[in-house]
Amino acid sequence: MHPARSPWVVTFFLLAVSGVAGADTPVQRQDLVAAQRQLEAVERLVERTSASATVVPGERYHFDYPRLLADLARVRVGIEHFLSPARAQPRESTELSDHYRIEPKPAPRPEDKS
């Protein structure tokens, strides 16, 4: 898959998972187990894509794969906690970062000698 398409896969996955969040049935459990498998596949895809991605010197932006992988891990852990709760009360969730664009820091300019 082309590296530029991988965010679309993640978006599709997150939309699919959000669609099962409203139900509280055995079907929901099956759907969430299937979502876990899909999430693992997306994580492998993102890892593979990040390994082959190159940062071009002087490029203004590049995709922040480590941050995306951290957010995917949070989603996976949330599903795991739902499927095997350690306690009766739901935990407070952390927000996803939603900022995957990294801008390089400007190169230091030589000081003007006047």
Q: Report the major sheet.
A: 2 strands, antiparallel
Rounded average pLDDT: 78
The quaternary state of the protein chains shown equals: single chain
Helix proportion of residues, in percent?
40-55%
**How many helices?**
3
Bulk shape: elongated
Based on helices, strands and strand pairing, what is the structural class? Answer: mainly alpha
Please state the CA-atom Rg, rounded to the nearest Å: 19 Å
Enumerate the spans where pLDDT stays under 50 for 5 or more consecutive residues.
none
Number of strands: 2
Strand order of the largest sheet: 1-2
Query: What is the string of SSEs from the N terminus onward?
Result: HHEHE
| Distance linking N and C termini | 54 Å
Commentary on this structure:
The protein is mainly alpha-helical and 114 residues long. The chain has a domain at 1-12 and 25-85. It is 54% helix and 4% strand. The chain has helices at residues 6-20, 26-52, 65-83, and strands at residues 62-63, 101-102. A two-stranded antiparallel ribbon has the order 1-2. The longest helix has 27 residues, at 26-52. The radius of gyration is 19 Å and the shape is elongated. The termini are far apart.
Comma- or semicolon-separated keywords:
114 residues
Task: Provide a concise account of the structure shown.
With 114 residues, the protein is mostly helical. The protein is built from 3 helices and 2 strands.
Explain the layout of strands and helices.
Layout lengths: L5 H15 L5 H27 L9 E2 L1 H19 L17 E2 L12
Antiparallel strand pairs: 1-2
